[in-house]
Structure formats: C-alpha cells, structure tokens
Amino acid sequence: MPISSLPLSRRALLATAAATALPARRARAEKATLKIGVLTDLSGPYKDVAGPGAVEAARLAVEDSGLKARGIDVEVLTGDHQNKADVGAGLARQWFDRDGVDVILEGTNSGVALAVASIAKEKNKVLLNSGAASSDLTGAQCNANTIHWVYDTYMLARSTGGAMVAKGGDSWFFIVADYAFGHALQRDTAAFVQQAGGKVLDSVRYPFPSTTDFSSFLVQAQSSGAKVLGLANTGTDVINAIKQAHEFGINMRLAALLIFISDVHSLGLEVAQGLALTSAFYWDLNPGTRRFSDKFIKRQPGRRPTMVQAGVYSSGLNYLRVAADIGVAQARADGAGVVARLKATPTDDDCFGHGSIRADGRKLHPSYLFEVKKPSESRGPWDYYKLLATTPADQAFRPLTAGFCPLVKA
C-alpha cells in the first residue's frame, strides 16, 4: 500500500507534531518581556537608604503596574555598585549588552549615576535615577536617556540652606564627602548661603567611603567659629557625624543636607531632635504615601520607606505604564523614545501624586522642609517629622535654563 494511503503514517504524525509545536514555540519566543535592573548599594553606607528596600519597591511597581494582566512579563535584576563608578559602569554594560536590560533604576551614588547615564545614552537604553543627588545629571551632563526623579543638590540646598540662614545661621563650615555628590551639594548650598547674605568660612573633604571617624573634622569645624556645620554627606556617614558631634558637645547648629528617615531611625529622636531637613517624600504625609508605605512595610518588616525607595517605585511604575503603551518591542528598541514619551506624559502615583518631567529630565514635584520631633512629640516608631514648609513643584528645582543642559534650547 502506498505511504500516502496509510490511515495515519509515522511521517504524518511527525509532521502534525511539528506543525503543532511550532506555534507554541513561537508564542513562547514572542512573549512580551521588559527587563528592569535595580543598581543600588546592597552592602555599603547607603544600604538602608536604598538597598534591598529599593529592590522591593521595584517589585511592588511591577505588581501595581498591571502589566501581567496585559500579557507582559517584567523581570527584575539586582546589582551592587559598591559605590564605585567603574563597578556600576561595568554592571550597566553587562546588563545592556548581555542580559537585555531595558531600564536601570536607582543609582544612589552620584559618581555611579553619571557614569551609567553616559552608558545609557551610548546604548540607547534608560536610566531613571532616584538615589544620586548631583544636579549635574540635569545640567551640563544631561542626556536624552536619563531622568532625575526624586531630589537633587539644588533642591536640598535651596530648602535647607536658605532656611538656616533665615534663622540666623549666617556663617558656615562644611564637612564634605569627597566625590561628585558631596562636591555638588557643597557648591549648591554655599551659593544659597551667600545669596541669603551668609558666609562660608571653611570646609574639609574626607575620603569616601572609607571614613568612619569624624572627630578631627568636627574639631576643625568648632575652631572655625562658624555658627552652622553643613554636612554634605549622607547614609552611615551622616549618622556617624551627627552621633560624634553629639558626643563631643559640638556647639554648632547642624544642617544635615541630605538625611533620610532611616538615618533618623538609627540616630533616635534623643539625638536627632530639632534637625531641619528637606525631603520630597514622607511616609505619613498624605493618604497616598500611607498606602504605599503600608504595602512596603509588609515587604520590609519594621521599616518605612525612604524617599529613594519611594522614587524607585514611582519611576518604575510610570516607566512601565509608558513602555506598555508604546509597545514592548518599540520600548526595548528605543530608550530615548521612551524617555521622550515620559516627558510628554503627566506622572501620577501614590508616592508623589501628580507631576511632570521637564525637557532636561528633571522630574517635578513639591519639596518639604521638616523638623525632627522631640521624643515627647512622637506617637510611636517612625512618627518622626513635623512639616515646616512646602516648596511648590515649579519652585523646588533649578530653573530650566539655569542648568545649561544641551537638550534645552535657549
């Protein structure tokens, strides 16, 4: 009997199986997937500020984006930049070139963020920075593939520096972390102090991140005769500096130019009370911030989110919405195109409410001047801040034309 006349031959079975398997394999291969890399400090001085909490914030953003219901998978990769620009840059290249990462979130360290921003531009991928503070990211070193999401040195300097001078703190001494962030924070704060009629008497830079003993710097500050000690550092460094100033009885007003609620928690209200600080986010500020914070604390038991961790959630959520609307294939192919769409799309989330993104990549929202409560004023764990003043979104950050970003046309 001819093969073609067999009721169901081996050849037909193989052909049918192949024809059936091909669409299934193609469907799996064509599954829409976006990849997020959370590049953060998992082991160093900014671990509590960002670290594992930033990773969980990114995962919350993925869950809240609703992309899974739309048939889009999102993978989250994590990496520790160790506060070294070369390490961060190496991870970014590996993620973009080998692992297919589409967007990097967080950053923490300004040196790392500036290096990664350059690579994102080179590879036409996306950097959404939440942790690094240098205002240079939206200034001379801005690019079309980077957005600076939460705060920057200009915002911090404008709010805290100006407030201290207005309260009589008209002479300053700075202790500065010796890298891009510390330099930018000192520069921007000094400019506001001088504009307000104050003077900068002196400053000292210390090796970062290898310094834990600030005693000699504190003695220099006290000897300068300055009224205000400006701490241009953050993370465990600012915690150590404030603790040691308290122990040594330093008779100066302390201006913690970038301090987070995790730092205040570590210090305790007995030591931190009365500190003036600027933040773009506080967990107990409004119903939206409380909603996010209540979800976050379930993932990070016993901890409330910092503004960096809130920024990771906010930037990730808004990115995923826009990438899905553009289409996954197009979003993966053109990072600058995603950033352009983000700039054209109003932002909205529980952490920062309604906002927008300028041409220079600066995310806009209000900033808040807080004072740390006395122990007697606190109702319990993490109830640490009282609001002193709010700076509207259109005034909180450096004017668009003042940063000399090449994306901004005069």
Account of the 3D structure:
The chain starts with 9 loop residues before the first helix and ends in a 14-residue tail after the last helix. It folds into 2 domains: 32-151 and 285-365, Rossmann fold, CATH 3.40.50.2300; 154-283 and 367-389, Rossmann fold (3-Layer(aba) Sandwich). A 5-stranded parallel β-sheet has the order 2-1-3-4-5, sandwiched between helices. Strands 7-6-8-9 form a 4-stranded parallel β-sheet, sandwiched between helices. Strands 10-14-15 form a 3-stranded antiparallel β-sheet. The protein is α/β, with parallel strands linked by helices and 410 residues long. It has 15 helices and 15 strands. The longest helix has 20 residues, at 10-29. Helix 2 (51-65) packs parallel to helix 12 (307-326) and helix 3 (85-97) packs parallel to helix 4. Residues 1-8 and 22-29 have low confidence and may be disordered.
